[in-house]
Amino acid sequence: HSSLSATRHEIAELRQENSVQASPPATTAVAPQNAAPPLDRLSADGLLALLPQGEEDMGAIYRAVPIIFEQLEDYSSDELIELMDEMDELSKSDPPKAGMLGLIKSLLMVIVAEEVPERILAMVEKDGAGTGSELRAAAFAGLARKDPDRARQLLEDAGWPARQIQVAKAVLLGELLKSDLPAALELFREDRSDLLTTSGAVISDVSSDPAVRDSLWVAVRSESDPVVRYELAKGLIAGAFIRGGPEEMRKAFAEADFDDVSLKSAIVQEFAGSALPTDPDQTYAWIRESLPAAEVPQALARALGSWARRDFNAAGTWLGEQEDSPARDEATGMF
Length: 335
Prior knowledge:
This protein is mainly alpha-helical. 74% of the residues lie in helices and 0% in strands. It has 19 helices and no strands. It has helices spanning 8-22, 44-49, 58-72, 77-93, 98-113, 117-127, 133-146, 148-157, 162-179, 181-190, 192-195, 199-206, 210-222, 226-256, 261-275, 280-290, 296-310, 312-320, 326-334. 31% of the residues are buried.
């Protein structure tokens, strides 16, 4: 999704970046090889003329994209859709040009999807499976940002493949978590089966915003559904781990001040294996401090097993340096 969420602003930055990379010394004035004078109305054929002719290197073609968008940056969404319709007609009448036209149309659809997402969704449905699920995802993301209620209604009526429904629900959940937390939690409870595989990454991503992060921690403490509560906490702790590694993860865990003992234990079990290889001594201390003594041996054994699958020698060396204890005995048995 993020790779397709292009905007006119991002295209402008790409054009500027390419201009800097490709610019000759200031003393030499060289016009861009594929540049064309601005046109009152760029036709589909005129658009193709801006591409490298006879060029098979896709990199060269993509480097020409900013030149194309320079010609199109003042076009309205309606004008771009009209141009795409013309491109469809040219593809039918001149099949050899269909490939390049399809590439440019896909890029245009992604940009217009930010402004008129439902029209692009309609185009995707009209073009069929060949258009690609990524375009559908980009268009749905635009709709979810503009009108989450409409996006949710569309999902209920859509006959999309199951995987695309899951991706779309994850996109919608992310937007709702930022704009309407009660609606996000309602969606999560109702569509838990579709969201469980993606919710952790979505929550981790949106938690980079401190205000969203604070509201989600409040939800963790008040949520009555244990599965939703666990997924929220897991995503928040994962976000902390991504931002600052084991130290930031432990800090977030401490600030969460879990009052649910089972949730606290589940989070430690979930993240100890990821933290142990990079910070073993502090992670082991965190396990001992966070869990009842009876749960420590199993938690360490599981975490060490995860480490051993990646680096058996390092895990074994560290374990050999630990003092005798029930936790060390169980971890040794795991080996």
